[in-house]
Inverse folding.
C-alpha cells in the first residue's frame, strides 16, 4: 500500500485532531521558545567565539533539534498560514544560507567551535544533523520554500565528495543513522536518483569490511542484510530499519525486505513493552536481550517510539498487513503520547511503566539509575520535543493508504481524505467508542483494519479478511463498523519476569495505569481478579480519553515483616487512567501491571 | 543473660559441628594461603618500597584481614593444638613486635607506604585495623600468648594520646567502626578500665558537634543515643550497634540501651531479608529505606550478617528475650552460611536472593550493578573470608547462656557445656529434625527457646513461657522437646514490593531456594499453591541439611508477547535446596520467592 500524506487528509474530530491542535497551538511554540532560551536558535548566527560569554556554546546535535522543529513547523504551514511561524523559519533558513561553507558543508557546531574536527568522529552526529536538515528542506520545499533544499543539495554534494569520491572522512557510515531516511525522502521529493544512490551507499556500507569501528551499538556489527536481531541504541536502530524498508521499496530489494521483516519480528514480538515502548535499557539507551523488559527501569525513549511508527509506516508500504498499523496504534496512544504533558509544554524522554518513589535511593557513592518522574520543559539532549512537533504536525500521514483500487483505513479517527478523485470521510469517537462510519467515493474497495485488541466486531457489509484487514466492495454507501471495546485484562509472555503473574488493563488500544494519587500508597499491594467486575468508564475531560474504575483487592499486611500467616485482603475500587497521561498531577507512584488472582482453584 | 564462651562448649554433632570442622580442616588454611599469595602475610615484614617490584604493595585494610584470621586461628588453638597454625600466628606476631613504631603506632600500610599520612583521613581504616588487631590480641592472650596484647596495649596508649590528649588527628572517631567492640573486649579480658573509657570516648564522641565530617554513611549523623534508624554502611552499623550494646551493659546506660532497641527494631522488622541478610543496596553497601529489599540486586554482605549475629548476641545480654537468638538462627543458617562454599574454600561477599543470568547486560556504556553469581576464593576487599574463620571457630559462643540460676538454650545443636559446676548435654538432629533432648546439672532452671518459626511444640515437663523462652524447673532428668517442623510457606509484608504476592519456603530455620539446574529455565514462571502438597524431604549428604520436593505449577506461555488469553499452567515438581548452598554447582538462575496461587476464590 501507499500511505496518503497528511496534505490530503483533514483531521476533523477526536484524539488525532486534539493532539494536532495541541501541537499547533502550544507545543510548536513551546519548543521554539525553549530552543531560543537555550541558545539553539541564536547558534545559527554563527556568532559564538570562546570569548563571547554572552552566548551559549553550541552543541554538536543542536542542528538536528532545530531542523526537526522546522520540519514540524513547515507541516503546520502546509495546512494553515501562520505568519509568525513562517518568519521564524525564514530567519533560520536565511542564517543557514548565509553561513553555509563555500564547499557546501553546514554544521553550527563544527564550523564555529571545532572547524579542525570536521568528519573526524563517527559519534559526533554530523551526518545525523545533516539528515534532519535535509528532512526540513523537503518539508519546506512542499510549502514553496526551496531555499533550504538548494543549500542542502550543495551539502549533499559535499558529503558525496567526502564519503564516496575522496573517502577522506575517518568513517564511512553515520554513527547515528538518520541521513539514510532523509536521502530517500529527497529522492522521492525531487526524483533525483543521486540522493537514493547516496542513501544506498550509506546503508550498504554499514557493517561491512569497509565500515570503520563496527559496533552493535550503532547497528554496524553486521552488513544490514545479515541483521536479524535488534541491537544497540534503539533510536538509531529505528532510523536505520526505517531507511532499510524505504530503500527496499524504492529498489525492490528482497534481501533487504527480509532483513526488515526479521528485525520487525524481533522488536515487536520480543523486545517491546505493552505500551509499544522499545529500548528497555538506560545504559546506552539500548535494546538488550529478548523479554528483558523491566517496568521501573524502562528507558523506552519517546524518540524510539516515534521511530517505531516510522518503521511501521515504511513496512506497511512493502506488505499489506494490518500488523504495522496495529503497532502504530499501540505505540502512539501509549508509549509516544506519554512523552507529552497534557498542557503541551513538557516532555518525557524516558517513559517508565512503573514508578516507586521510595526506591529513589542516593548517597555519596551514587544513585540508582531510574527514570525521572516529572516532565521537564526541555532537556540538554532535547531530541524528543521537536520529534513530537513533527510527528503530530504530520499525524495525518497514518490514517489512510491506497492499494490496487483499494482504500486502506489504518487508523480510526474523525478525518476526511481527498486526493485524485478518491474521497473518504470517517466519523467516529474512537478510541472512546468502537463504532466507525466510513463513506468512500472514487475507489472500488475499502479495507478496514481489524485492530489487534479486538476480539469481536460487526460490519454492515460483506467482507473478506486478509492479514488483519476486512476488504469490502465499495458501493459508496456508508460502511458501519462496530468494534466491541470492553475493558479487558492483558497478559504478558511468562518469559517477561517483570510482568509474569500480572495483568494490565486495556480498553481498545489504550493501556491503563494506576497512580497512587488515586489509589493510595503501595500499588503493588493491589490485586486484580482476572474476571473483571464493577467496571465503570467515564470520559476524562482533561485528556479526552476514558477513565476506568473497577473492583479489586488490596493486601492488608501488618503481620510482621515475615509471617506464616497469609496476608488478608480488602475490597477496593481500582481507579485507572490512560497510561499516556501519568505524571500530569505531580509526583506519584504509578504502575501498569497488577498482580492477578489466578482462577486455578476453580 | 550472659552467654557462655565457646571455651566451655563442645560441639558434638550436627550443623554447628560440621561447619566448625569445615573451618578447622579447610577454611582457616584456605584463607591463610590466599592471604599469603596476595602478599597480605608478607606485608607484615614491612619490606615493601616503591622499587620492590617483587612485593605486592600493601593496602590500608590488610592489617584487619590478617588480624581477623589470627583471631579465628587462636580460637581453634584454644580447642586443639595445631603446631603449624601456631607457627603461622607466632611468625606474624613476631613481625608486629619487630615493626611496631616506637610511639606504639602500628599499621602495615601507613608505616610503609604513606608514613606522612597517619591519622589524616577518617576513611582510611586505621582505627578499624587497630580494632581487629586488638581482638586478635585478646584471643591470643586466651591461649597463653600475651605478646600481641603487650604490643597493642602500647598502641592503645598511642591512640589515647592522639585522640583524647592531643586531639591531633584530623578526625575524632573512626570512619569504620570496630575498635569500639575491641576496646570493650580488652576491658573484659583484662579488667583495665582505660580500655572501656576509650571505647566510651569514641562511642560518645560519634555524631556530636565535636565529631568531624558527620555522615549517615558511617552513622555519625547524630549522637548515638539519638539514633533510631539504621542508616549507612551496614557492616559499620552492625559493629557500632554491637559496641553500643556492649558499652550499655558494662555501664548500665539506659539511654544507650534504648537506642540499641530502636535500631534493632528498625533493622529486623523493616530492613532485613527473610534470610537475615541486611544492607540491601550496593551503592555504599548500605541500608536504604524500610522495605526496600530487592532480591536480585540484594547486597546483603556476609560481614553484615555476621555483624548482625554480634549485635544480637550483645543485645541478648541486656534483655532475656528469645528474639535475639531467633535472628542469630535465621541469619546464620541462611544469609551467613551462604557466604561459604560447600568445599570451604570459596566465598560470597554479596548474597542475592535471586539470580537471573539473562539480566547481566553490559555494553560500552557500562553494566548493570548485579551481584556476582559464583563464589571466588578471595576478594581484593577480602573482609568476609576471615570473618567466617573467626565466626565458625567461635560458633560455640551462641549455644548456651546463663541467667539467675537459669541455663538458657539459645541454639539447638549437638553440644555439651561445662563451666563452674554447670553441666549440660544437648542431643538433637536439629535443624533436620525438631526433637531435642537436654540434660542439665548444677542449675535450677532451664530456659529453652521456642524458635520464631515454630507454631507447635511439645515438652515433656511443665513450663512457663516468657519472651519466647519456655522456663522449666530442672530436676536433672532429660528434658525432651519436640518442635513440629513442617515445610511451610512464609509471606512477606506487602510493603516489600519485590516479594509481595509471593511466598518462600521454610522448614525450621532453613530458607529454601530453587535453582534452574534442578527446575529448568525461568523460575519466575513457577507458581506455588499456598497449601503445599506432595511434599517430600530428603537429606542432602553434601550439605547435611534436607532437600525438598513439592507440587507446583509452571506457566506455559507461547501466546505472543501480549495476549488477551490468560496463560495456562502445567503441573511440575518444584525442587528446592537450602538457600545457603545455592551456586555450588556452577552458574544457574536462582530464586527464593515464588508467585503464589491465592485462595481468594475459595
Amino acid at each position: 500500500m501507499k500511505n496518503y500524506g497528511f496534505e490530503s487528509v483533514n483531521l476533523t474530530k477526536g484524539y488525532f485532531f486534539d493532539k494536532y491542535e495541541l501541537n499547533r497551538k502550544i507545543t510548536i511554540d513551546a519548543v521554539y521558545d525553549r530552543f531560543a532560551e537555550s541558545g539553539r536558535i541564536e547558534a545559527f548566527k554563527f556568532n559564538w567565539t570562546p570569548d563571547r560569554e554572552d552566548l551559549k556554546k553550541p552543541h554538536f546535535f543542536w542542528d538536528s533539534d532545530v531542523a526537526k522543529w522546522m520540519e514540524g513547523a513547515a507541516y503546520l504551514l502546509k495546512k494553515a498560514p501562520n505568519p509568525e511561524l513562517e518568519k521564524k523559519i525564514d530567519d533560520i533558513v536565511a542564517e543557514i544560507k548565509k553561513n553555509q561553507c563555500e564547499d557546501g558543508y553546514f554544521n553550527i557546531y563544527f564550523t564555529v567551535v571545532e572547524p579542525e574536527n570536521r568528519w573526524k568522529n563517527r559519534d559526533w552526529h554530523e551526518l545525523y544533523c545533516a539528515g534532519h536538515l535535509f528532512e526540513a528542506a523537503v518539508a519546506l520545499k512542499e510549502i514553496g520554500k526551496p531555499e533550504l533544499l538548494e543549500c542542502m543539495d550543495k551539502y549533499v554534494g559535499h558529503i558525496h565528495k567526502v564519503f564516496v569520491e575522496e573517502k577522506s572522512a575517518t568513517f564511512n557510515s553515520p554513527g547515528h543513522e538518520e541521513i539514510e531516511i532523509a536521502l530517500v525522502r529527497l529522492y522521492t521529493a525531487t526524483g533525483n536518483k543521486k540522493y537514493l544512490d547516496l542513501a544506498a551507499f550509506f546503508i550498504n556500507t554499514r557493517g561491512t569490511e569497509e565500515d570503520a569501528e563496527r559496533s552493535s551499538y550503532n547497528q554496524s556489527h553486521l552488513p544490514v542484510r545479515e541483521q536479524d536481531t535488534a541491537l544497540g541504541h534503539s533510536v538509531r536502530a529505528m532510523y536505520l530499519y526505517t531507511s532499510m524498508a524505504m530503500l527496499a521499496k524504492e529498489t525492490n530489494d528482497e534481501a533487504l525486505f527480509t532483513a526488515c521483516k526479521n528485525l520487525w519480528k524481533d522488536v515487536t514480538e520480543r523486545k517491546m513493552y505493552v505500551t509499544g515502548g522499545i529500548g528497555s535499557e538506560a545504559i546506552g539507551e539500548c535494546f538488550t536481550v529478548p523479554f528483558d523488559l523491566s517496568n521501573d527501569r524502562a528507558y523506552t525513549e519517546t524518540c524510539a517510539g516515534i521511530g517505531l511508527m516510522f518503521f511501521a509506516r515504511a513496512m506497511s508500504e512493502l506488505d499489506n498487513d494490518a500488523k504495522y498499523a496495529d503497532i502504530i496504534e499501540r505505540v502512539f496512544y501509549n508509549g509516544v503520547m506519554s512523552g507529552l504533558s497534557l498542557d503541551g509544554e513538557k516532555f518525557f524522554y524516558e517513559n517508565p511503566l512503573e514508578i516507586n518513589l521510595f526506591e529513589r535511593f542516593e548517597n555519596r557513592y551514587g544513585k540508582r539509575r531510574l527514570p525521572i518522574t516529572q516532565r521537564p520543559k526541555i532537556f540538554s539532549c532535547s531530541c524528543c520535543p521537536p520529534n513530537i512537533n513533527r510527528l503530530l504536525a504530520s499525524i495525518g500521514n497514518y490514517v489512510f493508504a491506497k492499494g490496487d483500487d483499494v482504500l486502506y483505513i489504518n487508523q480510526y479517527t474523525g478525518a476526511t481524505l481527498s486526493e485524485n478523485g478518491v474521497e473518504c470521510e470517517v466519523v467516529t469517537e474512537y478510541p472512546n467508542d468502537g463504532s466507525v462510519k466510513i463513506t468512500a467515493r472514487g475507489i472500488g474497495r475499502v479495507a478496514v483494519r481489524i485492530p489487534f485488541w479486538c476480539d469481536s466486531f460487526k460490519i454492515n457489509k460483506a467482507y473478506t479478511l486478509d492479514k488483519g484487514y476486512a476488504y469490502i466492495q465499495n458501493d459508496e454507501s456508508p460502511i458501519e463498523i462496530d468494534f466491541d471495546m470492553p475493558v479487558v485484562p492483558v497478559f504478558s509472555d511468562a518469559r517477561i519476569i517483570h510482568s509474569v503473574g500480572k495483568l494490565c488493563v486495556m480498553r481498545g488500544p489504550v493501556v491503563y495505569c494506576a497512580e497512587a494519587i488515586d489509589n493510595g500508597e503501595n500499588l503493588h499491594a493491589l490485586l486484580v481478579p482476572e474476571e473483571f467486575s464493577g467496571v465503570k468508564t467515564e470520559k476524562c475531560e482533561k485528556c479526552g480519553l476514558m477513565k476506568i474504575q473497577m473492583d479489586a483487592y488490596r493486601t492488608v499486611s501488618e503481620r510482621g515483616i515475615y509471617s506464616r500467616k497469609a496476608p488478608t485482603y480488602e475490597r477496593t475500587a481500582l481507579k485507572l487512567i490512560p497510561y499516556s497521561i501519568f505524571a500530569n498531577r505531580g509526583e506519584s507512584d504509578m504502575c501498569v501491571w497488577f498482580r492477578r488472582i489466578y482462577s486455578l482453584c476453580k
